[in-house]
Structures are given as structure tokens and as C-alpha cells.
Amino acid sequence: MAYKLPEMGYPYSALAPSISEKQLRLHHEKHHKAYVDAANELLEKLSKARKENGELDMKAMLKALSFNAAGHMLHSLFWKNLSPKPGSPSKKLLKAIEDEFGSVERFKKEFTQAAVSTEGSGWAALAYDEENRKLMLMQIEKHNVNLVPSLKLLLVLDVWEHAYYLDYENARAKFVEAFWNIADLGEASKRFEKL
Predict the structure, then answer these.
(1) What is the pLDDT of residues 90-118, one digit of tens each?
(2) CA–CA gap between residue 160 and residue 70 (Å, rounded)
(3) How far apart are CA 32 and CA 185, in angstroms?
(4) Which end of the chain is less packed: N or C, by CB atoms within 10 Å?
């Protein structure tokens, strides 16, 4: 079994002007596909070494596999978080947001600050901590650093430059602002309802 590049679920032009067709196509067909291909190549190399009793640099292998597999998984979630007709949060998610942040506006402000201030390449995420029964924000560096394993991801925003540079150049804050026009809190609600 191999990782597969997912279908977008909407045309590449559907998110304009927040994300242009050219930007979205490049991000999906080139960047996301590169993580899928690299993860599959690493899994194949690992399988071959095991069958042939070959030697591997496990530290390098597992680090690269974690980076590429997490890149694939986060991007797959990201595409579903975007919609030309984004939904509103369900009553259950809305209550959780209000309980944790005080209001949707405050949640959006804190999420925006998390996204804009992520160092280098990374992600902003809204997650749910099942143990403490609360929503939490995360800044994920690269694809796999600062990711808390037990938290369930509900909403993610890719703030690597490859996600926005064609449309916004180095103005990450403008990209994050535009994200709220296409952020599908209805889709985040579906994930939250399954917890």
C-alpha cells in the first residue's frame, strides 16, 4: 500500500481570489506530490532493506519518513479545510470555541497570531485535547516538529512560503487574512463531532 495524492474536491480555480488557480495547482501538484513521492520511496527503500537484510541509517530514514509522511497528511487535511463555500461551526464546535476562547472572533485572532508568528516554515493548527477536553492551538514547525501526538487536528493552515508566495509574495499576514474567506469550519466541525 502506498500513499496517494488526494483529489482536491473542487476545481483549482474555485478558491480565487483568496488562492489563485496557479498557486493552488503548484502547491498541490508539485509540493504535496513531492511529499507523497518521497514518503513512498522511503517506504520502498525500508521494505527492500528488510527483505535483503540490508543496512540502513535508521535515524536519517525515520526522520525523512516522518517529515514526508506528516507533510502528506497535513496537506491532505488542509485541502479539506478549504472551500469555495465554507461552512460555519456546528453548535458543538461553536460552544467549545466560546468555552475556550470566549468568542469566535477571539479564536480567529489567536489562530491568526499563531499562523503569522510561526517561525520559518510550518503550520498553525486548531486541535482537540481529549484528555483535558479542550481546544488548543499549535504551531507545527516544518511538518513534524512541535506536533503533540495525542491531539486531534481539526483545522490546519499551511504557512510555508510555497503555500502563498505566488499570490502574496512575502506578505504571510495577508495570506492568513484571506484564509478566513475560505476556511471551512463546517469541515472542522465534522472532525470534532467524531471525537
Answers:
(1) 999 999 999 999 999 999 999 999 999 99
(2) 14
(3) 22
(4) N
H helix intervals, 57-184: 58-81, 91-101, 104-116, 165-168, 172-179
> Can you give the pTM of this predicted structure?
0.93
Angle at which helices 58-81 and 33-51 pack, to 10 degrees? 150
Distance of alpha carbon 154 from alpha carbon 135, whole angstroms: 9
Identify the structural domains of the chain with CATH numbers, from first to last.
21-81 (1.10.287.990), 91-193 (3.55.40.20)
pLDDT in tens, 7-20: 999 999 999 999 99
C-alpha grid cell, residue 158: 499551511
Cell of 104: 469566535
Residue type, 195: L
Q: Are 160 and 124 in contact (CB under 8 A)?
A: no
Given a contact cutoff of 8 angstroms between Cβ atoms, the answer to whether 89 and 188 are in contact is: yes
Q: Quick one: residue 90, left, alpha or beta (phi over 0 = left, psi -120 to 50 = alpha)?
A: beta
For 79: left if phi > 0, alpha if psi spans -120 to 50, otherwise beta; the answer is alpha
